[in-house]
UniProtKB/TrEMBL annotation:
It comes from Bradyrhizobium quebecense. Its cofactor is Mg(2+). Pfam families: Inositol_P (PF00459). Belongs to the inositol monophosphatase superfamily. InterPro entries: His_9_proposed (IPR011809), Inositol_monoP_metal-BS (IPR020583), Inositol_monoP_superfamily (IPR051090), Inositol_monophosphatase-like (IPR000760). Its EC number is 3.1.3.15. Pathway: Amino-acid biosynthesis; L-histidine biosynthesis; L-histidine from 5-phospho-alpha-D-ribose 1-diphosphate: step 8/9. One of its GO terms (molecular function) is histidinol-phosphatase activity. It catalyses: L-histidinol phosphate + H2O = L-histidinol + phosphate. This is Histidinol-phosphatase. Keywords: Amino-acid biosynthesis, Histidine biosynthesis, Hydrolase, Magnesium, Metal-binding. SUPFAM superfamilies: Carbohydrate phosphatase. It is an enzyme of class 3 (hydrolase). Gene3D superfamilies: 3.40.190.80, Fructose-1,6-Bisphosphatase, subunit A, domain 1 (3.30.540.10).
């Protein structure tokens, strides 16, 4: 992606800080999990709780303290302008899972450079699992994460968070891919992208996502050897429209793109 050597060399330091952030908010997230919560619907009808807002505030405070010159974009509180670097955080990715007691929600922390994905972290508070990614490398905990070698849809294990997110032409594309796959499963939000990076599934298709939903995932999937783009095969940026395709290999990704086009 054209990162300078100096910027690329800084990736480990930024990921170390992202891990500190995740460690800091994990007990806060868990303190709210499976407790009575007031749930408010946002303008797009997605749910939000005091847990989401509290965790995002904690994340933003720490980022502003360490890197006051960096921008910040959060799911609940919006954006703070900055320079070349911008942090993008989703305090609880999978709020619907969170409020129904399902444990595979996550905290997402991304750092972008010139609006391009640079470093990413998926933290799964309930299980204690964590994926991190930077240019050329992804880790599951301290171990190398690698995608599978699957190259054909007919051999692929397919995931999406929910078939309900697809309507109209999007639903038709979803059916073409998911029914062509060897196995299809639903649920998991950010967790399934970690599974993809670790080789446990092969393709993920989603729509209607926001930058805070996908920017942290890109360095992890790509660092593990996979491909992650929009539905036209274009790189995902903070200005993308929310159609996301992630696949274990370039050949599988290309076949999925062809099915999307019909």
């Amino acid at each position: 992606m054209g990162y300078s050597a100096v910027v690329a060399d800084d990736a480990d330091a930024y990921l170390s800080f992202a891990a500190e952030l995740a460690d800091f908010v994990r007990p806060v997230v868990l303190s709210y999990f499976r407790t009575p919560l007031d749930v408010v619907s946002k303008s797009d009808d997605s749910p939000v709780t005091i847990a989401d807002r509290t965790v995002e505030l904690r994340l933003r405070e720490r980022i502003e303290e360490r890197f006051p010159e960096h921008g910040i974009i959060g799911e609940e509180i919006g954006g703070k302008p900055g320079g070349a670097f911008t942090w993008i955080v989703d305090p609880i990715d999978g709020t619907k899972s969170f409020i129904t007691g399902f444990p595979l929600f996550g905290t997402l922390i991304a750092l972008t450079y010139e609006e391009q994905p640079f470093c990413g972290l998926i933290d799964v508070p309930f299980t204690g699992e964590r994926w991190t990614g930077k240019p050329g490398l992804a880790l599951f905990g301290s171990r190398l994460a690698r995608t599978s070698t699957c190259e054909r849809i007919v051999d692929a294990r397919f995931y999406t968070t929910s078939p309900d997110m697809f309507t109209g032409a999007d639903a038709e594309a979803f059916e073409r891919i998911s029914k062509a796959a060897r196995l299809r499963r639903f649920g998991g939000d950010c967790y399934v992208y970690g599974l993809l990076a670790s080789g446990h599934c092969d393709i993920v298709l989603e729509t209607g996502l926001q930058p805070h939903d996908y920017m942290a995932l890109i360095p992890i999937v790509e660092g593990a050897g996979g491909c992650m783009t929009d539905w036209a095969g274009r790189p995902l940026t903070i200005r993308s429209e929310g159609h996301v395709l992630a696949a274990a290999t370039p050949k599988l990704h290309a076949e999925a793109l062809a099915l999307i086009r019909g």
